[in-house]
Amino acid sequence: MDKFITLRSSAVPLAIENIDTDQIIPARFLKLTERKGFGDNLFRDQRYDGSTGEPVASFPLNDPRYSGTVLLAGKNFGCGSSREHAAWALYDYGFRSVVSTFFADIFRNNALNNGLLPVMVSEPFMKRLFAETERDGGAVFVIDLPSQTISIEATGESEKFEIDGYKKECLINGYDDVDYLAAARDEIARFEKERSWSSR
């Protein structure tokens, strides 16, 4: 995974509540065995007209005013089935963070395991983020993982967010669970050597 330290980016606003994992990546596109290629079908049924296959102009990902590696999402994002492919699709499309007032637990964990940072903020601050993007489609937001803050660059408004310490360390170093253990191999070997039973 890529390291995640500080992300400075504009955002795509998707102010819809209860977006479930089947909306994020429909079940019919889950046949791929690698993590690549899912981004093409991210929000497929909302992004494209089912009868013509043409992009739906009103859908935020098709709106030329919006771009960036941050997705501003409605409450209860990632609910529904536990498919890890939802996080894969968002990451493969190019998003590195999703900001919402609430995430489904399994989606949040899947995101963290795949280099995608879920940032949970208060409802008032979420309204400010959406309002800033509506005011200026190119508005820039800064997500600082070491300090656990998200800021609106133009105004300086900022809010802290919570994250598990282990997952924070993994994201900052670009580790998955296996990488984390590999990085600690010397410490693990030293611990094993110093165990009382190992020297008997």
Provide an overview of this structure.
- There is one protein chain.
- It is built from eight helices and eight strands, in the order ββααβαβαβαβββααα.
- The protein is 32% helix and 16% strand.
- With 200 residues, it is an alpha/beta fold.
- Strand 4 (97-100), helix 4 (105-113) and strand 5 form a beta-alpha-beta unit.
Question: What is this structure, in a nutshell?
Answer:
The protein has 200 residues and is of the alpha/beta class. Helices cover 32% and strands 16% of the residues. The strands form two sheets. A four-stranded antiparallel β-sheet has the order 1-6-7-8, covered by helices on one side.
Topology:
Blueprint: E1 6-9, E2 11-14, H1 21-24, H2 44-47, E3 70-73, H3 85-93, E4 97-100, H4 105-113, E5 117-120, H5 123-135, E6 141-144, E7 149-152, E8 158-160, H6 165-173, H7 177-183, H8 185-194
Radius of gyration equals 19 Å
How many E-type strands?
8
Question: Main beta sheet: strand number and arrangement?
Answer: 4 strands, antiparallel
So what's the overall shape? globular
Provide the spatial order of strands within the biggest beta sheet: 1-6-7-8
Helix content: 25-40%
| Ends distance | 41 Å
Mean pLDDT: 91
| Oligomer state of the chains in this structure | single chain
Tally of helical segments: 8
